[in-house]
Design brief:
Layout: E1 7-11, H1 17-27, E2 31-34, H2 38-43, H3 63-71, E3 78-83, H4 93-96, E4 100-105, H5 108-118, H6 124-127, H7 129-141, E5 148-150, H8 151-156, H9 158-169, H10 196-200, H11 216-233
Parallel strand pairs: 1-3, 1-4, 2-3, 4-5
Helix pairs in contact: 5-11, 7-11
Protein name: Sulfotransferase family protein
Pfam families: Sulfotransfer_5
Keywords: Transferase
Amino acid sequence: MADERPIALWAVPRSISTAFERVFVERGDFRILHEPFSMSYYFSPERRSERFDGEEIKEEHRYEKVLAEVLAPGERPVFFKDMAYHIAPIMDRELVGRIRNTFLMRDPRAVIASYARKWPDFTFEEAGYEELYRLYGYAVEDGQDPAVIDAQDLSENPDAVVAAYCDSLGIDHKPEALTWEPREIPEWEVWDGWHDSAQESTGIGKLERKEVDLPDDLEEIYRRCLPYYEALYAERLRV
């Protein structure tokens, strides 16, 4: 019997995760949910962050309601992309066991430099590495063998990495989904300005390898993130 649990791509910010999600949009055989738990983290009565203080708080964004949508059966299986830190308030093994968990990360130095240009005041939790690693641990405890992807690998060899990812999940690889026409994705409008590259692109672009200097405050966040990244990097898919 096919595993009907939703597939989650848990990521850190600025890791070309939306471009990866775009591959699944183009496949057409999944129901796509875009960062559903971000609404709970920032815009629900249970919000963890006051970053958007003054914005409307909605009951429909409560964690239990968003989770119900994620788990709801439908004609097509669910694929969703989200940041692991968005479920920090409810993360446990029982929840993780209801989902097929996969992971995407990137060198934290590159992530932090890019993130700081968008949100100069982002927190260590919003960097996402500790929660990504914690979620990975729960998935392993649940008996899963989750696919872990490094963004640099993905950008340099998208066909092979996506093929290995699909194989790990027991789903068909569709190479034709790796290229697309530029267009707006309505479901991404809630995070306007964050996903322009993924909408304007025609495929997964290659990430530049370069040295990045960080100011002292961001260097400290980098040092805290690095052990989690290195532990996950050791588990990455190799192609």
